[in-house]
Structures are given as C-alpha cells and as structure tokens.
Design goal:
Helices cover 48% and strands 14% of the residues. By secondary structure, it is α+β, with helices and mostly antiparallel strands. The protein has a 5-stranded antiparallel sheet with strand order 2-1-3-4-5, with helices on one face.
Length: 206
C-alpha cells in the first residue's frame, strides 16, 4: 500500500512542473516575437512548430509525476501522430490533466483572493483540433491540394498563440497521483509555481 506522503506535492514536483512551464514560455515567446515580422512560409512554419510543441508540453505537464503516462503520450504524438490517443492516455492517468485558466480577484473588504475562470483560453475540448491544424500546416505541400494562404496561416498561429497565453499566464492544475493543486504563472520575467495541499478532515487530523 502506498504511503499517504506519496500523494503530497513536493518541492521536487514543483520544480518538475516549473521546468515544463519554462519550456512552454520559451516556445510561446518565440512565436509571439517572430510572428509579426514573418512574411515567408518557412518563418510562419517555425512559429507554428513552436506553438504545436507548446501544446504537447501542456498535455504532458500535469503528468510529470507519472513517467509511464508521459512516455506513452510522447509515443502517441511523435510516432502515431494521434492527438486523440494522447488525450485518452492523459485523461486516464489524470482526469484533470488540462490546466484551467484563472485570474486572481479580491473583492473590496474581502481578506481572501478568489481564482476566477478566464474566457477565451485554449480548452481541453479544442486543443486536439488546433494541434491537428498546426500539424497539417507543417507538412510538405502537395501541389494538387489546396493549402492555407500565408495570411490565413499567420492568423491561425496568432490566434492559437493568444489562446495559449491566456491559458498559461495564470492557471491552476492538478498533478497526476498528487493531492492539492499547483498555481502556475508565465509572465514577462519568466515562470513561477506555487502549490496548495489539501487539508485532512478534522476526524483524520492528528
């Protein structure tokens, strides 16, 4: 039987997730800073690739405490090119694998801070579709098939980038096999992670 302490979020867990956030931050920053000046297909493709990888990192992020799930998802995304299979694996390992975009809010006269949901962020329901669009855009062009124009491709990458920024700026996530939650933030100066544990019921305390 696993020890109860095995389910407590540790400083090591914080650091593992912080590393994932740092990688996501770098990918998003590349697209955010380079896309406005991208005028050629390879330049836009470079930004699209970074955003696609950022999405993959988000899918795997909450599973840093479950190596088997991480490796299965990596195989699904890199070998089988199947986002639906990756989502199925992630959901089985952690039903709350997808982070929730939040914003801190403190009402006048209130001592505590509430975390309110943010609209417009990339959602669990839409990431597979957007990942697929980005992936299709990165393949070699078949001259007999219609392709996105450069303006449409730039708009796609820009929209998904903005949705990712909304999601990752301030979010809560539950790690696989852990109690409590993490609050992750990506800002102009980098990333930060804070965790909150769950208090045991009074009948179990002591």
């Amino acid at each position: 039987m696993a020890d109860e302490g095995d389910h407590v979020i540790s400083p090591e867990d914080d650091e593992l997730y912080r590393r994932v956030l740092d990688e996501i931050y770098k990918r998003i920053e590349h697209a955010r800073t380079h896309l406005p000046s991208a005028h050629m297909r390879p330049e836009i493709e470079s930004c699209a690739l970074q955003i696609r990888i950022a999405i993959e990192l988000i899918v795997m992020g909450s599973l840093v405490t479950n190596r088997d799930a991480i490796e299965s998802i990596d195989l699904a995304l890199s070998s089988k090119k199947s986002a639906s299979e990756a989502a199925k694996i992630a959901r089985a390992a952690n039903p709350d694998y997808w982070p929730k975009a939040t914003t801190p809010y403190k009402a006048p006269g209130q001592l505590t801070i509430d975390l309110r949901p943010v609209e417009g962020a990339l959602s669990e329901e839409s990431w597979e579709r957007e990942w697929g669009k980005l992936s299709a855009f990165l393949h070699a062009r078949n001259p007999f098939k219609e392709h996105l124009s450069l303006s449409d491709a730039r708009e796609l990458v820009d929209r998904v980038t903005r949705e990712l920024i909304l999601l990752m700026n301030h979010h809560v996530v539950h790690l696989a096999d852990r109690d409590g939650m993490l609050v992750g933030q990506i800002g102009p100066d980098g990333v930060s992670v804070t965790h909150f544990g769950l208090l045991a019921p009074a009948s179990q305390a002591g």
